[in-house]
Design a protein that fits this description.
Blueprint (H helix, E strand, L loop, with lengths): L8 H31 L4 H30 L3 H23 L6 H29 L1
């Protein structure tokens, strides 16, 4: 049956929501890093890596979401698999911001916990979609 649709609507919706949430996450995290650099004695040698991780994460987010949408809509496992690989990188950067940035505020914990939960749910849906495309 060639008319069966295998692309995942829940995955599509979650990719969209993650894209919107990531814009909020980036701006809020950037604002908090700026706030912390003003309020706390934030050593310059720690400020740069924290900012670099945030910007690297933002750079990764664009192809991660694009490949996720493309792979899902074209029902192609390769772009979806690449998106899944980039998600692993994003998770590691998110964990850095959650555990190892210079100052971690409760808002950092909340923002990163929501992002990690979304990445986890999205990864599960990607694996399910890839399995459906391959079979």
């Amino acid at each position: 049956n060639n008319s069966s649709q295998l692309s995942s609507l829940p995955l599509h919706i979650l990719l969209y929501v993650n894209g919107v949430y990531y814009i909020f996450y980036f701006l809020a995290t950037l604002a908090m890093i700026i706030y912390k650099s003003q309020v706390f004695s934030y050593p310059d040698e720690f400020l740069a890596p924290d900012l670099a991780v945030l910007f690297l994460m933002a750079i990764l987010e664009v192809p991660r979401l694009y490949l996720g949408f493309k792979g899902n809509l074209t029902e192609a496992e390769a772009p979806l698999g690449l998106s899944l690989g980039l998600t692993v990188g994003s998770v590691l950067l998110c964990v850095y911001l959650l555990l190892w940035q210079s100052y971690v505020l409760w808002a950092d914990v909340l923002l990163n916990a929501v992002l990690l939960a979304a990445y986890g749910l999205e990864s599960g849906l990607k694996v399910t979609a890839i399995a459906a495309f391959v079979s």
